[in-house]
Amino acid sequence: MGAASIVPEAGSHPIEEIAEAAPTAAAFGQLHPMGREENFVRMLKRFADAGYRGICVTCDCPTSGWRERNMRNRFEPTLEVVGGNYPPGSETSIYEVFGQLFDISAPVWPWSKLGDLMTNVSLPWFAKGIITPEDAVAAVAAGASGVLVSNHGGRQLDGVMASIDALPLIRDAVGPDVGIAVDSGIRRGSDIVTAIALGADVVVVGRLAVYGLAAAGEAGVVRTYELLRDELRTVLTLLGRGGIADLDRRAVRRVER
Ligand SMILES: Cc1cc2nc3c(=O)[nH]c(=O)nc-3n(C[C@H](O)[C@H](O)[C@H](O)COP(=O)(O)O)c2cc1C
């Protein structure tokens, strides 16, 4: 379908294996700015060596959100689910890497430290989990090429703004030349249109792809993207716009209730 992927450090398969299986799709490597610096840099270099074209640094997850449904269901991310990059005996222990997720007293890295560490590879990077204009500006000042406006699909801090509401504020703050992606709540082609109209260059889906996968495996994911594409075309036509490039803020209007 031509879509790119953000491949997580906390996955069930090594990032090298994924890049080999899907060289064009495995575009961005994702990791968390936490734990020991040498572990972070080692993972950065693994992404670079495996041919990833950029890095996504998830900044809204210094510790896991308070997920009551997971608690009620006694869900725990097992090594099988998140440990693919750190099999037993590897140089880095997975407990060391993700330990901070369960330690609310662990220090959060300042932007300057993240910016410095990112110079260990010559890949562009973007900050994910940005929801305020101030953080977007700080990420760019630290060297990010762009930001992924996201509230983590509502899984981190309850009560934060919706990505779609934060998006135009962030576009206004960083100006027209900084790349902006957006996720959280994208379910329809019309959501893509709204996001592009409000200033996004790239639109990202999380759970939507997983829903397709759960329904019908690989074919379900393909079908999900087909539906998005067809809905997108329909909405553009109904709006009287020839294509995505013809979208601007006049395509949508907020109606106060
Ligand atoms: C099961 C699950 C696991 C996730 N794991 C990660 C992760 O490891 N790193 C990350 O940056 N975001 C992670 N996310 C958040 C997604 O990257 C994305 O921000 C979110 O799902 C977007 O919202 P949506 O699901 O409404 O599209 C995860 C989301 C889900 C549902």
Describe this structure in words.
The chain has 257 residues and is an alpha/beta fold. Helices cover 41% and strands 12% of the residues. The chain has ten helices and seven strands. It has helices at 15-21, 37-49, 68-72, 79-82, 94-98, 111-118, 133-141, 163-174, 189-197, 207-239, and strands at 5-8, 26-31, 54-58, 125-130, 146-149, 179-182, 202-203. The chain has a seven-stranded parallel sheet. Strand 4, helix 7 and strand 5 form a beta-alpha-beta unit. Helix 7 crosses helix 8. The radius of gyration is 19 Å and the shape is globular. 33% of the residues are buried. The mean pLDDT is 94.
Brief synopsis:
41% of the residues lie in helices and 12% in strands.
Alpha-carbon distance between the two ends = 38 Å
Order of helices and strands: EHEHEHHHHEHEHEHEH
Class by SSE composition: alpha/beta
Shape: globular
Helix proportion range: 40-55%
- Note the total helix count: 10
